[in-house]
Amino acid sequence: MRLFCILAAFAAFVIASPTESNWFRAGADVVANPIVIPDTVRPSVTDIYVSLGKTQRHVGNVVGSDLYGHVWQGLARICPVLGGHCNKESIVIPVPYVDQDRYLPGKLVIILKDSRYPTNEKFHNLLIGLVAGALQRSSEDRKNCYWTTYGSQKRRVWFCNVGNTVWASIKDAFIRVEIKAEGSGGTFDCPAILRSVEDSVDDLMPELREVFGRDPTRLVDCGLD
Questions:
Q1: Which residues contact 30 (CB under 8 A, 6 or more apart)?
Q2: CA 220 to chain centre
Q3: Taking the C-alpha atoms of 94, 98, 99 and 100 in order, what is their torsion angle to the nearest 10 degrees?
Q4: Does the CA dihedral 113-95-185-143 come out positive or negative?
Q5: What burial class does residue 156 get, using C-beta atoms within 10 Å of its C-beta: 0-12 exposed, 13-18 middle, 19+ buried?
Q6: Which N-terminal stretch is annotated as signal sequence (predicted)?
Q7: Where does residue 134 rank: exposed (0-12), middle (13-18), buried (19+ CB within 10 A)?
Q8: Greatest distance between any 2 Cα atoms in the chain
């Protein structure tokens, strides 16, 4: 019944809004084969949804634009535009950590859990940008970072954390990743970074308006874990 309602709503929307029909043509494979996503995962009331996990994951000193670049390049590699979905592979990023007073080489692993998107380059790039932007902003908040020391001389190093999952969706297109890492210091305060992640979504609004043909709605929360 819910799937029927979604299809009916899409049909009515296309008929009533000619300026937005291009968006649906660009995403034709999503509309023709819609995915029913539970309301607890993606609220149907919003066009753009970003949900973050609440459990700490160590990103060390790979933060900000550096982390964004690693995530963007990795997702672009495993998520071909024409494929319509990402390959279920992992992105491995070298990340140092401290364990028992030792500074060690480690890794941050971003695991592609599920995805679906139209074969449209702009749409594809926006989804990747939502994921990368959410992780960038998560790593930049000082509440999610901490000083730690290592070695006999007690050298100090500044490390940061992100959440353990990211779900980003634009209508019925989505990318969902899970994050694993070595290193367990500090905390991750998800509510503290929601405003900043909203700002990262707003940075993409000019392109998102082109996709929708209007001002899309957006929601960012700490719903996944």
A1: 116, 117, 118, 171, 172, 173
A2: 10
A3: 160
A4: negative
A5: exposed
A6: 1-16
A7: buried
A8: 70
CA separation, residue 94 to residues 60, 89, 105, 110, 223 (Å): 9, 16, 7, 12, 28
Q: What is the DSSP string of the chain?
A: -HHHHHHHHHHHHHHH-GGGHHHHHHTHHHHHS-----TTTS-TT-SEEEEEE-SEEEEET--HHHHHHHHHHHHHHHS-GGGSS--S-EEEEEEEEEETTEEEEEEEEEEEEEEE--S-HHHHHHHHHHHHHHHHHHHH-GGGEEEEEETTTTEEEEEEEEESEEEEEETTEEEEEEEEES---S---HHHHHHHHHHHHHHTHHHHHHHHTS---EEEEEEE-
Residue with tokens 């070595």: 182
Q: Which residue ranges in the chain fall short of pLDDT 70?
A: 1-44, 224-225
C-alpha separations of 132 from 22, 76, 89, 139, 149 in Å: 26, 11, 16, 11, 29
Structural contact between residues 75 and 128, judged by C-beta atoms closer than 8 angstroms: yes
Domain chopping of the chain, boundaries: 40-224
* Residue-wise pLDDT tens digits, 21-62: 333 333 333 333 333 333 444 555 789 999 999 999 999 999
Q: Which conformational region is residue 79 in: left (phi greater than 0), alpha (psi within -120 to 50 degrees), or beta?
A: beta
Type of residue found at 123 = F
Q: Which tokens is 23 given?
A: 């968006």
